[in-house]
Design a protein that fits this description.
heterodimer; A: 291 residues; mainly alpha; 2 strands; B: 355 residues; alpha+beta; six-stranded mixed sheet; elongated
Chain lengths: 291, 355
């Protein structure tokens, strides 16, 4: 026993060649991320003529375009997260259980958004929507086109954002489902009388909580920051509104983008904590058991 | 049929009769089950025994509802179940391993089927307590699966399956991932449990010791069908085919002249038509003899008995080239390795086949 532990310690020493170097790397990366944000923060709260002030933040919130942009973005975000999970979780479970042969094909399809620039996606959507509208007022394609572009509920943006998150979500859920013995769990639950929906809710979801939470996070981050598709299709989401006010009140736009950034970070931290808790009770209980 | 009121007590389970009639299963071009016929009586414990790929697991999974049958009928208490979805069949299942829900405590695992059925809490709690007692894990309710040993996990899986008072309990190699000691103790416990509850059980295994030790009847399967189904003793003493004779227990295959009477002293047959005798190691003995046809090559100590192997001189084209005999370990010194022996039949061969 002593022998073994000595060996592993030796291995650990080899892996961390010089602890100082790794710390230097971490600090370097931290600076790379933090310096621009700190500069932006300093810029947003220091006005040379007026000294330190939070006025730019208040100005950005007071802008008449802000409430509309915020509510539209939040609506899109919620719908996208719900739509994404409702689409991908059952699909991935089905793929793993019943159609593993299709996995490579779905994987490729889900990866495409990563290699297609979002401007190409937006341009393609514009072309399709226009040609549908071209069928003439009142025709079915034109009605569908109108429905998709409803300014209060832009279904087309929700759909686009779901597509844009697929590459991340596919991988995250795929990895999650691989770590559990899916077939055995599903069959056990069925034999105990649980229907498909119950199995999904009570057995599968709790066991892939981490990947599901991270998928939702990716999706939220994308919805809060996506600019290209929204602006090309002519919607005033938060990022689009930000670039518009940047022309008239640059400082206010910077302060708002910092707020959004902070929100994303807060979400990331919250999700990490939640996911940590999801990898559950059992891990914590185990620790207690061993000690 | 009479309706029996169910109570909170797990012992009230009503056993069901299972009947497979000409059940076939094909996966693409491969046929896994070829017209399986099998009847399991209420309260009976039947083991499906066979090498991997013989269709035993598929037969079980069709009954559980995890596979469809390509043709044939399958009834439980006279009702066709093939079109009933798995979650409405009321058939309990314990599989090889790792089937407990890792996110749930032992209590929640065992109660899962009851929660799904919306049983009231008081009854769930009462059942949980009596089931954990039944499988010998009182006080483990708050543990998580990762904190349990393999044997304990299987006990919980058993309690979980019994919680829904299944009409039939299916066990798909439930012991094969466990170590030998746990395996043999759990083997006895499952058997005792089955006798106490009087539940119909179908048990799949590739381990003949397990099948012989636990089941009322053992069905030896081969190539998608049942080769022989009988009580363990009958299967061992009177196998109906050479496959069963070789698969269940150990046999020596001794060639004798076609139609000849069974000799007292066996000598290798090297020419002419022959029959093969399948003889168990306890039905033979070695006698030290200078001009014997074999010499002893190994001793394998097995506790009360020792298995002695002798190699037959010259090349043997019919039957075994080595003969295994079990002797009491105390008398092993009379037959040291290297001595020349002759082979005496002391018991009846299990099977005689025209080769």
């Amino acid at each position: 026993m002593v022998h073994v532990s000595r060996k592993t310690r030796a291995a650990r020493d080899v892996r961390v060649v010089a602890p100082g170097l790794s710390w230097a790397l971490i600090i370097l990366v931290a600076l790379y991320i933090a310096v621009p944000m700190l500069c932006a923060f300093a810029f947003s709260i220091y006005v040379p003529t007026a000294g330190f002030t939070f006025e730019p933040y208040l100005e950005s919130v007071r802008d008449p375009g802000f409430p509309g942009a915020l509510s539209l973005t939040l609506l899109i975000t919620v719908l996208t997260v719900v739509g994404l999970l409702a689409l991908m979780v059952p699909t991935m479970v089905y793929l793993h259980l019943r159609a593993p042969r299709w996995r490579p094909i779905i994987e490729i399809v889900c990866t495409i958004p990563l290699v297609v620039p979002s401007i190409a996606l937006a341009a393609g959507l514009v072309t399709v929507l226009r040609s549908m509208a071209g069928f003439g007022r009142g025709s079915l394609p034109a009605q569908v086109s109108q429905l998709l572009q409803n300014p209060d509920l832009p279904v087309v943006l929700v759909g686009s954002y779901i597509v844009l998150t697929l590459p991340f979500v596919f991988r995250s859920l795929d990895a999650g489902l691989r770590t559990i013995d899916l077939r055995t769990l599903v069959e056990s639950a069925h034999s105990l009388g649980a229907s498909g929906a119950t199995v999904l809710r009570r057995v599968i979801l709790p066991n892939i909580k981490g990947p599901v939470i991270f998928s939702a996070f990716f999706c939220i981050a994308l919805c809060l920051g996506e600019f290209t598709v929204a602006v090309t299709l002519g919607y005033r989401t938060l990022p689009v509104w930000l670039t518009q006010i940047a022309g008239s009140n640059f400082r206010a736009s910077i302060s708002m983008s910092l707020l959004i950034n902070a929100l994303t970070w807060a979400l990331l931290i919250a999700m990490t904590v939640l996911a940590g808790r999801a990898a559950p009770a059992r891990a914590r209980a185990l620790k207690g058991h061993e000690s | 049929m009479t309706l029996t009121a169910t109570t909170a007590h797990p012992r009230s389970t009503t056993a069901a009769r299972i009947e497979y009639t000409a059940v076939s299963k094909k996966f693409g071009d491969t046929t896994v089950l070829t017209g399986l016929d099998l009847t399991v009586e209420p309260g009976e414990f039947v083991a499906l025994l066979g090498p991997s790929g013989c269709g035993k697991s598929t037969a079980l999974r069709i009954l559980a509802g995890f596979e469809t049958a390509s043709s044939g009928t399958l009834t439980v208490d006279g009702r066709d179940v093939l079109r009933v979805p798995a979650h409405r069949r009321g058939i309990g299942m314990v599989s090889q391993s790792y089937s407990l829900f890792p996110n749930l405590s032992v209590a929640d695992n065992v109660s899962f089927g009851l929660v799904v059925r919306r049983e009231v809490k008081a009854r769930r709690v009462a059942k949980l307590t009596s089931l954990l007692d039944l499988v010998g894990l009182p006080g483990y309710a708050d543990r998580f699966p990762a904190q349990l040993s393999g044997g304990q996990q299987q006990r919980v899986a058993l309690a979980r399956a019994l919680a829904i008072e299944p009409r039939v309990l299916l066990l798909d190699e439930p012991l094969s991932a466990l170590d030998a000691k746990v395996r043999s103790s759990l083997r006895e416990e499952i058997r005792n449990l089955q006798l106490r509850l009087g539940i119909t059980m179908l048990f799949v295994t590739h381990d003949q010791d397990e099948a012989l030790a636990m089941a009322d009847r053992v069905a030896v399967m081969r190539g998608g069908g049942i080769e022989q189904i009988d009580q363990p003793g009958v299967l061992y003493d009177q196998p109906s085919t050479d496959f069963v004779a070789r698969f269940v227990g150990t046999t020596n295959q001794l060639a004798v002249a076609r139609g000849a009477a069974i000799p007292d002293l066996w000598v290798p047959l090297r020419e002419g038509d022959h029959d093969l005798l399948y003889v168990r190691p306890e039905s033979l003995m070695f006698e030290e003899y200078d001009r014997g046809c074999a010499h002893i090559v190994s001793h394998v100590y097995r506790g009360a008995t020792t298995r002695i192997t002798a190699k037959i001189d010259g090349s043997i084209s019919r039957g075994s080239s080595e003969i295994k005999v079990d002797v009491p370990s105390a008398s092993v010194t009379e037959l040291p390795i290297g001595i020349r022996v002759r082979v005496r039949l002391t018991g009846r061969p299990a099977l005689r086949v025209e080769a």
